[in-house]
Design brief:
- The chain is an all-alpha fold.
- Among the domains are: 33-89 and 96-109, no CATH class; 151-284, no CATH class; 327-466, Methane Monooxygenase Hydroxylase, Chain G, domain 1.
- The protein has helices at residues 4-30, 34-84, 97-136, 151-189, 196-202, 213-251, 255-266, 271-291, 293-310, 315-320, 331-350, 352-375, 387-420, 431-467, 485-499, 508-529, 535-564, and strands at residues 425-426, 429-430.
- It has a two-stranded antiparallel ribbon.
- Strand 1 and strand 2 (429-430) form a beta hairpin.
- Helix 4 runs parallel beside helix 6.
- Residues 474-549 have low confidence and may be disordered.
Length: 565
C-alpha cells in the first residue's frame, strides 16, 4: 500500500505537468516563438527549482533543528537523571525524529518539574529545620542546599524534621513543668531570680526560651538546687522543732503555751517564713535556757543515763565523762552535756539494731534462767493451772532460739568491729566474752546444784544405813518378782536389828560400812565445800559421786536379796 506522501508527490508532478501543458497551450495561442517558449520554460523550471530548493533547504534546516533538539534533550535528560539520581532514560526503538524529539522534550519537561518540586520541598524543609535548630540549638540536617536531593534524602529529611518536632514538644513540656516547679520552689523559699538565665527561664515567654540540652540541664541543676535548699530548710525545721520540743521538756513549758506556739508556727505558708519563725522561737527558748541552766543540766543528765543504759556503757565509760560529776553548773558544762547527749543519740541511732538485739538477748537470757530455776523446783509439780507445760515449752524454745540469736549478734558485732576497728564492749567487757561467761556460769551453777542433790542423796543413804530410815522415793514399776528398794531396805533393817547385841553394839560389818561411808562422805563434803573448783574437777567429782551412789545401791540390793532368800 502506497503511502499518502507518495500519492501527494505524484499528484504534485501531475499538477506540474498539467500547468506546463496549459502554459504551452497559452503560448501557442498567443504565438510566442519557439525560442521564447524555451526561455519561458527555462524560467518556469528555474522558478520551480528554486522553490523546491528553498523548500528542501527549509526541511533540511528542520531536520537539523530536530537532530540538535534531540541531542540537547538527550544531554538534558542524562544530566537530570544524574541530578535526580534516577536510572538513565531508555529511548524506544523505531521512532522517527519528530516522535523521538517530542518524547525527549516531554521527558525533559517532566524531569525539570520533578527537579523544581524537590528543590522547593528541600528549601521548605531547610527553613523548617532552621527554625527547629534555633529553638533546640541543634545543628542542621547534613544536606547540600544547592544540589537536587534524591527521594530517599527527602524522606530522611522529612523523618528528621518529624523527630525534631517530637523532640521540641518533649523538651517544651519538660521545660514548662520544670518552670512551674522552679516558680513554686522560689515562692516557697521566698527567693527571686538572680541571674540572667534564671530570669530568662522564669520571667520570659515560654516560646522564646532556647530548649537546648545545656539549658535544660542547667534548669535541672537549678531545680535540684532549689529542691535541696527546700529539703535542707525542711530538715532544719524538723531539727529545730525537735530542739524546741527538747527545750520545752527541759524548761517544763506548760502545754497551753506549747500549743499556742505550734499554732503560730503553722500559720506561715512558706518554708522560709516557717523557718524564720522556728529560729526565732528557738532563740527565745535558748535565752530562757541560759536563765535555767541548773534545772536543764539535771534534765539532760537523766537523758544521758537513759542512753548509757541503752548503749550498755560500763562504769568506766560513764566515769570518763567528767562533766557529769561536776558541781559547777555553768554554760560550758551545759554545752558539754548537750554534746554528750547528742553523741549518745547519734551512736544509738547508728547502731540501734545491734543494741536492740543485745536487749532482746538479755531479756531472753534472763527469762531462760528463771525458767531453768523453775524446772529444778520440786514445788512446780503442785501446779494445777497448766503453766508447767507452757513454761517447759517456753524454756525449750528459748534453749533453741538463744544460740541463733547469739549467732546473729556475733555477725552484727563483727561488722561493727570491722567498721570501727576496735572491740565491741558491753558493760565494760567484750560482749561476746560476756555471753560466753554467762553460759559457763550457768553450766557451773547447774553442775553445783547437781552435786548438791547427789550429796543430799548420799547423806540420806548414810542415814538409812545407820538408823534404818525409810527413803521415800517416787514409786516406779518394776519387773514381777523383783523386790522394791523400800522392801529390801526394810528387810535389811530388820535383819541388822535382829543381829544387834542386847548391849547395843553395832555389828562388825556395819561398822566397816560406816567407816567406808564416813570416809566417802568426808571426801565428798571436802570436794563440795571448795568454792574455787574448776569445771574439770567438778566433772570428776560428779562422776565419782554417781559411781559411789551406784556402788552403795548395788551393795544394799545384794544384801537385801540375801536376807530375803
Amino acid at each position: 500500500m502506497r503511502r499518502l506522501s507518495e500519492i501527494h508527490a505524484a499528484e504534485s508532478v501531475s499538477c506540474l505537468n498539467k500547468a506546463l501543458n496549459e502554459l504551452k497551450d497559452i503560448w501557442e495561442e498567443i504565438g510566442i516563438p519557439e525560442d521564447q517558449r524555451l526561455q519561458r520554460t527555462d524560467a518556469v523550471h528555474m522558478h520551480i527549482k528554486k522553490l523546491l530548493d528553498m523548500m528542501i533547504a527549509e526541511e533540511e534546516c528542520l531536520k537539523k533543528r530536530l537532530l540538535s533538539s534531540i541531542e540537547t534533550c538527550r544531554k538534558e535528560v542524562a544530566s537530570l537523571c544524574n541530578e535526580l539520581q534516577v536510572q538513565e532514560y531508555q529511548e524506544e526503538d523505531g521512532l522517527t525524529m519528530l516522535q523521538l524529539e517530542k518524547d525527549l522534550r516531554t521527558q525533559v519537561k517532566m524531569m525539570l518539574k520533578e527537579k523544581s518540586a524537590r528543590q522547593s520541598e528541600l528549601k521548605s524543609l531547610i527553613q523548617h529545620d532552621q527554625d527547629l535548630c534555633d529553638i533546640l540549638c541543634d545543628d542542621l540536617f547534613p544536606i547540600h542546599a544547592e544540589r537536587v536531593p534524591s527521594q530517599q534524602q527527602l524522606q530522611n529529611y522529612r523523618q528528621h524534621i518529624n523527630t525534631r518536632n517530637q523532640e521540641k514538644e518533649r523538651r517544651h513540656a519538660e521545660f514548662v513543668e520544670m518552670k512551674r516547679q522552679i516558680t513554686v520552689l522560689m515562692e516557697d523559699l521566698e527567693q527571686h531570680p538572680d541571674t540572667s538565665f534564671e530570669k530568662d527561664a522564669v520571667c520570659e515567654d515560654e516560646d522564646a526560651f532556647c530548649l537546648s540540652v545545656e539549658n535544660l540541664s542547667s534548669l535541672k541543676v537549678l531545680l535540684h538546687q532549689l529542691d535541696s535548699r527546700k529539703a535542707e530548710s525542711e530538715a532544719l525545721c524538723v531539727s529545730i522543732r525537735g530542739r524546741i520540743a527538747e527545750l520545752w521538756e527541759m524548761l517544763q513549758i506548760p502545754e497551753e503555751e506549747r500549743e499556742r506556739e505550734s499554732l503560730m508556727q503553722n500559720t506561715h505558708t512558706s518554708t522560709k517564713s516557717r523557718l524564720n519563725a522556728l529560729q526565732a522561737a528557738l532563740q527565745r527558748l535558748e535565752e530562757l535556757k541560759k536563765k535555767s541552766i541548773e534545772r536543764v543540766i539535771h534534765t539532760i543528765r537523766s537523758e544521758i543515763v537513759k542512753f548509757w543504759e541503752k548503749c550498755y556503757y560500763s562504769p568506766e565509760q560513764r566515769q570518763a565523762f567528767t562533766p557529769y560529776h561536776s558541781d559547777d553548773l555553768d554554760e560550758e558544762v551545759l554545752r558539754e552535756h548537750e554534746l554528750e547527749l547528742e553523741r549518745l543519740k547519734q551512736d544509738y541511732a547508728e547502731h540501734s539494731e545491734l543494741y536492740d538485739a543485745i536487749s532482746t538477748w538479755s531479756s531472753n537470757w534472763t527469762l531462760y534462767q528463771e525458767l531453768e530455776k523453775k524446772a529444778t523446783d520440786p514445788s512446780r509439780f503442785n501446779n494445777r493451772g497448766g503453766n508447767l507445760l507452757k513454761e517447759e515449752k517456753q524454756r525449750v524454745d528459748l534453749q533453741k532460739s538463744l544460740p541463733k540469736l547469739e549467732k546473729s549478734l556475733k555477725a552484727q558485732i563483727d561488722q561493727w568491729e570491722a567498721t570501727h576497728c576496735k572491740e565491741f564492749h558491753g558493760n565494760g567487757q567484750p560482749f561476746l566474752q560476756y555471753v560466753e561467761d554467762q553460759w559457763n556460769r550457768h553450766h557451773m551453777e547447774k553442775e553445783r546444784e547437781k552435786q548438791e542433790r547427789q550429796m543430799k542423796k548420799i547423806k540420806q543413804t548414810e542415814e538409812d544405813l545407820l538408823y534404818g530410815t525409810i527413803i521415800r522415793t517416787p514409786t516406779k514399776r518394776r519387773l514381777a518378782g523383783t523386790p522394791t528398794p523400800g522392801k529390801a531396805r526394810k528387810v535389811l533393817t530388820a535383819y541388822l536389828c535382829a543381829r544387834t547385841p542386847a548391849r547395843g553394839r553395832t555389828p562388825r560389818g556395819l561398822e566397816r560400812n560406816k567407816e567406808n561411808i564416813s570416809h566417802l562422805s568426808g571426801a565428798l563434803h571436802t570436794m563440795a565445800a571448795s568454792p574455787q573448783i574448776n569445771y574439770s574437777i567438778t566433772s570428776v567429782a560428779s562422776s565419782y559421786s554417781e559411781f559411789a551412789v551406784r556402788s552403795l545401791s548395788c551393795s544394799l540390793d545384794a544384801q537385801a536379796a540375801d536376807v530375803i532368800k
